[in-house]
Amino acid sequence: MPETSKPLRADAERNRRLVLDAAAAAFAEHGLEVGVAEIARRAGVGRGTMFRRFPTKEHLIAAIVVDRMDQAGARGRELFADPNPDAALFELLASMVDAAQTDRALFEAVGDTFLANADIRVAHAELIGVLDQLLRRAQDAGTVRDDVGALDLLMMFKGVCEAARPFSVDVAARQLELVRAALRPVAASERLSGRPPTLDDMERALPQVKGKASAQ
Amino acid sequence: MPETSKPLRADAERNRRLVLDAAAAAFAEHGLEVGVAEIARRAGVGRGTMFRRFPTKEHLIAAIVVDRMDQAGARGRELFADPNPDAALFELLASMVDAAQTDRALFEAVGDTFLANADIRVAHAELIGVLDQLLRRAQDAGTVRDDVGALDLLMMFKGVCEAARPFSVDVAARQLELVRAALRPVAASERLSGRPPTLDDMERALPQVKGKASAQ
Predict the structure, then answer these.
(1) Residue boundaries of the structural domains of chain B
(2) Which of A61, A97, A142, B196 is 20 to 30 A from A103 via CA?
(3) 3-state class of A1 per DSSP?
């Protein structure tokens, strides 16, 4: 039924969007304790649809995390066109701080085990790829030291996200400025030791969820 | 009984030390699932003594975290005598990375709610005080930018601790070098926005454990 499959897909995609937005809003408002049935109600979708698509709250949380990573990746790709590679890199990072502020609980819920979820792993690797390209552009332009890799940056960025709380001072802005300072070009004598970590290094270092991980 | 109270205290302190060391070793080896009874057995102390002192595993974990903070504070105070304030500051940070590597699970277990525990809060504030003094010494010597505070540094340091895992590259060393780069003195035009966060800012921003927090 090629005539109907497209509208159906569009409808399913619309429902999916409604659910993810309702869930993100509910979680931000009331924490992760909000039930899946309550989220279905808020999204205005049937419980059957809801539970077929997201059998558990973990599925829902993972889907929002993937969505956020996809959004950051899309923003990063737009920034490839920015004539100022340095501004582009830090604009992506700033938007990721904002996302961390809104979705802190979600990312914490996924935590260290995120690489055990295949969808998150793919979205994460794509986002790293985008970040890597923005970083290289700034490095080629000579505004960022050329001995850091995307994962070095991402780890440093944890401090920024840690600061992305409702502090009474804008601690996150200060942290981002410090990251920027750390990334300034340096003399040969001040280059980092070793080599930048890779995604493979990261996958080996992070804990795997038993069962799930080995099933993939 | 003033004659016996001192040896008794020394004995209690020795038992406490045995328990904390046994617990830290057991947790590092087998994770936080190890039971309190098993730790008593390893420490060679009676279960009665153990449960009187540490009624739950949470008490034990908090005591180890306090112990680690005290150790870092003591190391920091020794470093006040170091003639090179810059080396002293980064030596304390490096020792804290090592501790984070060994005791990652413990600090994660305490997590965001650590300020709800009065003992941890005191140990944390004291450690911040020591870090602040080492930072100021390096700032006075002109080797570290004077617009960062101890809590800016501690947040940046989260990235370093995040990297303190068994990666196949020494990511933690790279992160520490990046923190060092971020702390280099800067021109007036590159000073951080706002003011350094304070412990009060931090206490207001971190989630409190319900009940426990209000009882203090």
Answers:
(1) 1-55, 58-215
(2) B196
(3) coil
Tell me the pLDDT tens digit for each residue of A11-42. Answer: 888 999 999 999 999 988 888 899 999 999 99
A193 touches chain B (CB under 8 A): yes
From the options 3.40.980.10, 3.90.230.10, 1.10.10.60, 1.10.10.10, give the CATH code of B1-55. Answer: 1.10.10.60
Q: Is the pLDDT of residue B164 over 70?
A: no
**CB contact A203 to B (< 8 Å):** no
3-state secondary structure of A38: helix
Distance in Å, alpha carbon of A185 to nearest chain B alpha carbon:
10
The domain defined by B58-215 folds into: Tetracycline Repressor; domain 2 (1.10.357)
What percent of chain A stands above pLDDT 90?
45
Percentage with pLDDT > 70 across chain B: 86
How far is the CA of B203 from the CAs of A105, A108, B197, in angstroms?
18, 19, 11
* ipTM of model: 0.79
Band (A216; pLDDT cuts 50, 70, 90): very low
**Which of B143, B177, B208 would you mutate first to test chain A, the one with the most A CBs within 10 A?**
B177
What pLDDT is stored for residue B70 in this prediction? 95
Which of A181, A193, A205 has its CB closest to that of B167? A205
Write the residue in B160, B173, B182 that is nearest to A193 by C-beta. Answer: B173
Instruction: Compare CB distances from B194 to A152, A155, A174 and report the shortest one's residue.
Output: A174
- Put simply, whether B189 touches A (Cβ < 8 Å) is no
Exposed e or buried b for every residue in B58-72, given b needs 16+ CB within 10 A?
A: eebbbbbbbbbbeeb
* pLDDT surpassing 70 at residue A164: no
Q: How many CB pairs under 8 A join A and B?
A: 120
Query: How far, rounded to the nearest angstrom, does the alpha carbon of residue B212 sit from its chain's CA centroid?
Result: 21
Chain B interface includes A29 (CB < 8 A): no
Q: How far apart are CA A175 and CA B152, in angstroms?
A: 7
